[in-house]
Design a protein that fits this description.
165 residues; alpha/beta; six-stranded parallel beta sheet; elongated
Length: 165
């Protein structure tokens, strides 16, 4: 299953929803596609969709998905990372009236370059390749992320041991 989410931003992201729907229609995507479409005006014809989903259902969809495709909002692509998924991140862009500026492009680009934990695309034409080559792309990525919680707990334990012993 492929899960697509555009978050809750009040501007449409028809470019992404329509592109995935067309890839499903043409047979490029041959598995089930579930979408959270938010404020999009385009209504998918070949995918299961809802405008909004309860948070628990979002988490379940991400957990169940083979591929998660999301917009560039940090909350939307950090959640899949926390669940152990490498998301395809398609940034909303001002020139398409999807957002007020291009901060999603800049933020996702920096995360992709610095962390290497997301597949970031800006041009919708790149989406087909990212889906078709997903497993190979992910296999070639540096997916090691050290938990800040684990680092903090380890440092705190060392400090406590030092004080108490």
């Amino acid at each position: 299953m492929i899960f697509v989410t555009v978050g809750t931003h009040e501007q449409q992201f028809d470019r992404l929803i329509q592109a995935v729907d067309q890839l499903k229609e043409s047979g490029v995507i041959d598995e089930e596609v579930v979408m959270q479409t938010g404020y999009c005006t385009y209504e998918p014809k070949h995918c299961t969709w809802s405008r909004m989903l309860p948070y628990e259902e979002m988490i379940q969809n991400v957990a169940d998905a083979r591929i998660v495709i999301t917009h560039g909002g940090p909350s939307s692509f950090l959640m899949p990372l926390q669940i152990g998924k490498i998301p395809i991140v398609v940034s909303r862009q001002k020139k398409y009236r999807e957002h007020v500026n291009d901060h999603q492009v800049e933020f996702a680009k920096n995360v992709a370059e610095r962390m290497g934990t997301i597949i970031h695309i800006t041009e919708i034409g790149e989406l087909r390749h990212a889906i078709e080559q997903y497993d190979q792309i992910v296999a070639g990525m540096n997916q090691t992320m050290e938990s800040n919680n684990a680092c903090f707990c380890s440092a705190l334990k060392s400090l406590i041991d030092e004080i108490c012993c």
